[in-house]
Fold this protein.
Amino acid sequence: MKVKKEIYKIIRTILAVGFGILIITPLLFMISTSLKTEGQIWKHDIQWIPDPIILDNYKRVFTDMPFGQFFTNSVIVAGGVTLGQIMTGYLAAYAFARIRFIGRDKIFMIFLATMMIPSYVLIIPQYIMVDRLGLMNSYGAMILPSVVSAFSIFLLRNFMYSIPFELDEAAMIDGCNRLQILLRIIVPLTKPALSAMVIFVFMNAWNNFLWPLLVTSSESMRTIPLALSYFQTSNDTEYGPLMAAALVASLPILAVFMVAQNKFIEGMTMSGVKG
C-alpha cells in the first residue's frame, strides 16, 4: 500500500508540474517576444532567450499611443464596475440569504436563470438604453450596465447562507438594524467570498473589449484592450510592441490576484458549503 501511495504521489506531482508548464509557457513566450526585435521574432527557430535583449518595444508602448490615458480609463471602468457589483451584490445576497419573504427562492432562481442568457444577446437593448439616456462616450456607459451581476449575488449569497443565523438574532437583540448587521457582522465574515468576487469581476471588466468599443467614439475614452489594436493593422501586426503592451496591461490583474489569492481560494472552497 505504501508503494502504491508513493507511485500515485509521484504521478500527481508529474501531472501538476506538466500542467503548470503548459499554463506558464504562453506567458514566457509573450515575455520573450516583447524583448525581441522584429528580425528575431520571425526567425525559423524559436529563441526563448533573446540575444540581445531590447526594451524598445516597451518604450513604444508609452510613446506611440496615449497609454497612460488608456490605463487610467481601464482603472476607472474596472474599479467602478467592481465597486458597483460589491454594493448591489451584498444588498441582494443579504436579502436572499438572511431575510425570509414570500417567493424568495423562486426569485433567486429567476436571477440564476439569467446567467444562462448569452451576454451578446443583451448588447443591442443595452446599447439602445445607454444611447437614449445620453450616456454614450462616457464612463457611465461602460460602467452602469455591469453594476449588477447574478454571478456576484450567487457567490455572496451561498457564502452568507453558511453563516449561523444566531449571529443576526444576537445583533438584533443588541439593537442593530439590518444594515448594521450587514456592515458590522456579515461583511467581515464574507471577506473570502468578496476576494473571489473582486478577482473575477475586476478581471472581466479589465479585459472587456466589445462593449467599450461600441459605446466610445473618442480616443480619450478608450480602454486598455482597445489600445492593443494600435499595433495591429489589416496588413501587418507588430508582435514585439503588441506583446509588451499585453504584458503591461496584465500587471494590474496579476497584482489583484497576488494580493487576494489566499482569500480567493478560501472563498471558492466555502461559497458552496450550503444553499
In short: The two ends are 38 Å apart (CA to CA). Confidence is low (pLDDT under 50) at residues 271-275. The chain has two domains: 1-54, 66-270. Residues 1-54 form one domain.
